[in-house]
Design a protein that fits this description.
The chain is α/β, with parallel strands linked by helices and 391 residues long. Among the domains are: 3-100, Rossmann fold (3-Layer(aba) Sandwich); 128-195, no CATH class. 34% of the residues lie in helices and 25% in strands. The protein is built from 15 helices and 18 strands. The strands form four sheets. A seven-stranded mixed β-sheet has the order 16-15-12-13-14-17-18. A five-stranded parallel β-sheet has the order 3-2-1-4-5, sandwiched between helices. A hairpin with a 6-residue loop joins strand 15 and strand 16 (274-280). Helix 1 (12-23) packs across helix 11 (297-305) and helix 3 packs across helix 4 (82-88). It is globular.
């Protein structure tokens, strides 16, 4: 039996991957500081505890993974987060294969500034933006009207031998842009100040190998956490247009990219056109929706990593919806308790207790919970207890 070592078991993507791989006949071992959701699953055979300092120290993480690979005879390592991907892709791990793109392709695909330059050449729309290479560049930028999003070019950077996560900030006007930029450390540069696009989120998901698409999938975000834009809490499987998929394939090819990728768009409410936001060069948080809709990315990724054949044309159940239970609750609490200014809310977002109740009741009988499964309930129990402790 092939053993797969899955990182970051606290992530929902790790739980989805563990369930997928166990169902496909793999032996799953997780490694992380805390057992989290995935290690509580009956799909996981063993959990390896990672020393806390190793999580943000790439070299220490690599060494801990090497020891786990040797101890459990893992043939494949599946990094789930950007931190793990940056540390493990291309690393020598006692012969274990790392499921994902090459480190060079990962770095290029994760560079949001480069994507914003490359995408228009392929007919993909991008937001208008100003790029700051240095903190002093803001003084030379001409103030502009409108709402803005401030994004570091990379979500995770290495600084003084440690991994540093960088977040996105929203600004209602240029004065807020100045305040938001001042909060970023020098390691966050270059920064992109992008025109804010209002509309629903769209995702195009591809698994590429040797210039061919092995799997493709799409979804529409129906609700997010935070409500202004973030991870999806309620989403629906859909068939993206053939033209958009082809442009995404061309974009990945131009980057020399192979592996799993989520190409994220916003459907501009003013024009109805998709506008590129970023590429996630790894498994994404809502991968369980793709699995439930018939497109099993984790199992296919591991099979492709091992050089094994996978079905190329699964029957996709378009219209399938999944919801992240506690993410939906957080979304409802946010729109109940917070103001539009606190949430940096889009113009069409309804707020207040009545809106929160409507969001919680907005379900179809066939919708599937993401974390809770009758056949595997413990991950939801673990997440619920963790959620209660945070309140």
């Amino acid at each position: 039996m092939v053993t797969v070592l899955v990182t970051d078991p606290e992530q929902r993507a790790a739980l989805a991957a563990a369930r997928s791989l166990a169902r496909a006949g793999y032996r799953v071992v997780t490694i992380g500081v805390q057992p989290g959701l995935a290690a509580a699953s009956r799909a996981v055979a063993v959990h390896v505890t990672l020393p806390a300092p190793s999580q943000n120290a790439p070299e220490r993480l690599r060494e801990a993974v090497r020891e786990a690979v040797a101890a459990h005879k893992a043939q494949v390592v599946l990094p789930v987060t950007d931190r793990a991907s940056r540390a493990l892709l291309g690393a020598h791990l006692h012969g274990a294969l790392v499921a994902g793109p090459t480190p060079e392709a990962y770095e290029v695909a994760s560079d949001k500034a480069l994507l914003m330059q490359r995408a228009p050449e392929l007919g993909i729309r991008v937001p208008g933006q100003v790029v700051l290479e240095h903190p002093s560049d803001l003084q030379e930028a001409e103030p502009r009207a409108g709402a803005w999003v401030i994004k570091p070019a990379r979500s995770v950077v290495e600084h003084n031998g440690k991994s540093l996560s960088l977040s996105v900030r929203f600004a209602a006007d240029w004065a807020e842009v100045v305040q938001a930029v001042a909060a970023y450390p020098p390691a966050a540069y270059p920064l992109m100040i992008q025109e804010r696009v209002f509309g629903q989120g769209l995702g195009v998901f591809l698994l590429r190998r040797e210039g061919h698409t092995l799997l493709s999938f799409g979804h529409r975000r129906l609700r997010e956490k935070p409500p202004a834009g973030g991870v999806s809490t309620y989403r629906e499987a859909l068939a993206p247009s053939v033209d958009l998929v082809q442009r995404c394939e061309a974009l990945l090819d131009s980057l020399g990219y192979e592996g799993p990728a989520m190409i994220e768009f916003k459907e501009d409410a003013a024009t109805g056109q998709p506008v590129l936001m970023e590429i996630n060069a790894r498994l994404w948080g809502s991968v369980q929706l793709a699995i439930d809709a018939g497109v099993d990315f984790p199992a296919a990724l591991v099979a492709a990593t091992l050089g094994q054949p996978i079905p190329e044309s699964p029957v996709v159940r378009h219209g399938t919806r999944t919801y992240w239970e506690l993410g939906e609750l957080d979304h409802a609490l946010a729109i109940w308790r917070k103001s539009a200014e606190q949430l940096a809310a889009p113009p069409d977002l309804r707020l207040g207790a009545r809106a929160a109740l409507r969001a919680l009741a907005d379900r179809r009988w066939a919708d599937r919970p993401e974390v809770f499964r009758w056949s595997d309930p413990m991950p939801f129990v673990v997440e619920l207890l963790r959620w209660i402790r945070r309140q």
